[in-house]
Amino acid sequence: MKKQKKIVLAYSGGLDTSIILKWLQENYDAEVIAYTADVGQEMDKKKIIKNAKKLGVKKIIIQDLKNIFVKDYVYPMIRGHALYEGVYLLGTSIARPLIAKDQIRVAKKFNAYAVSHGSTGKGNDQVRFELGYHYFGPKIKIIAPWRIWKLKSRTDLINYANKHGIPIPKDKKGAPPFSVDDNLFHTSTEGKVLENPKNSAPEFIFQRTTSPEKAPNKACFITINYKNGDPVGLNGKKLSPAKVLNKLNQLAGKNGIGRVDLVENRFIGIKSRGVYETPGGTLLLVAHRAIESVTLDKDTMHKKDEVMPRYAELIYNGYWYSKERFKLQKIVDLNRNKVNGSVKLKLYKGNITIQSRQTSSNAYSMKKVSFEENKTFNKSNVERFINFHKKKLR
User: Which residues pair with 9 in a beta bridge?
Assistant: First the structure.
């Protein structure tokens, strides 16, 4: 008897991937394995399993990747202070390479001939997934339903779901949902009323941040502890990477921090509007720059700022596993062993204020910056310094 082929589908349990699962079963003579990467998104594991089983799936894999996600993907990106187009903290972008890597691991484990994803034909994620698939499994076939099936719209999907008894979720207003992606680092919301940039984002779409107006009237304080450039704990208490980010998400979200409304330039050449919530990530970015300010020399810091736009663009475009990103990561991590200490932040109604920076590093010299007369800084050399730079003006 001929052995049935296998396809590993990146499966969320939601409407789109449930439709894709059924479509794969109808159009390919293969067993579909449902694979879910747990990168800290809001999800109901029982519901995922129930929905997959209802569609006849025998193998359902839910892989906990939260600590790996924060430690090996979010933290390196934060060390690079990556902001795409000066605003976007790359929450969706940074999760895709890890999901692709682990999905290929599962495909190899079960000897699957193909992998599949639910990214749309107009989005960036199809690129990010498929570059990751190619890096780790260049011989494994990629099936991208949105680029090949005849379902062309949201209405087509809903009709298909109704035909096959696939439940259709509703948003808080009782309508089909916005397009939402979330993980431990962020939540993005796109589509519907947000597609027109003249429309304000309705308050009900925000899932992990309180509006600054409704945030507590009392300020909140948090201290982030660093070792070798990465957070290792909060308020002196050692915590795992996932727990650090989870706690910061709660505190920042409660205090109205981390909202961004952005019209971005997608890699494939179109503009799109999205609303992003990255509460804990916003704190990490501010605090990391603060700890580096008292631990790193000027040349190292300025070099990092110089490469950051390209570094962020590579992540956005799906080039996490590229030689260029690896090369830039080495620049980003120059002298990270010196980045040790703590930063205290004040959180209040959407604002972040740095309260203090503490380190044993000698990069910052109180003697040299003091307004009191001292012998550690020779001011007589300044005139020669200025004269040298005058010559560069000619």
Answer: 34, 116
- The 10 Å Cβ neighbour count of residue 98 is 20
> 3-class DSSP state for residue 227?
strand
Mean pLDDT of the 81-104 span: 97
- We find that the CATH architecture of domain 5-78+91-177 is 3-Layer(aba) Sandwich (3.40)
Residue 171 known to be catalytic: no
Tell me yes or no: is domain 182-356 CATH 3.30.450.90.
Answer: no
Q: What is the pLDDT of residues 159-209, one digit of tens each?
A: 999 999 998 876 544 455 678 899 999 999 998 899 999 999 999 999 999
Helix (H) or strand (E) segment spanning residue 61: strand 60-64
Which of these is catalytic: 154, 179, 261, 293? 179
Catalytic residue among 79, 96, 208, 336: 96
Tokens of 136: 């780790």
Read off the amino acid at residue 388: F
Burial track 253-266 (b if 16+ CB lie within 10 A, e otherwise): bbbbbbbbebebee
How is residue 11 written in tokens? 């499966």
**Residue in 12, 16, 208, 272 annotated catalytic:** 16
* pLDDT higher than threshold 50 for residue 61: yes
- Domain positions in the chain are 5-78+91-177, 182-356
At residue 103, the 3 state secondary structure works out as helix
Other CB atoms within 10 Å distance of the CB of residue 27: 12
- For 207-227, write each residue's pLDDT tens digit: 999 999 999 999 999 999 999
Q: Is the separation of the CB atoms in 275 and 194 below 8 Å?
A: yes
72 is catalytic: no
Residues linked to residue 37 through DSSP beta bridges, in sequence order: 63
d(CA 93, CA 314): 10
- The reply to whether 356 belongs to the active site is no
Question: 96 an active-site residue?
Answer: yes
**131 and 99 Cβ atoms separated by less than 8 Å:** no
Exactly one of 102, 125, 181, 182 is catalytic; which is it? 125
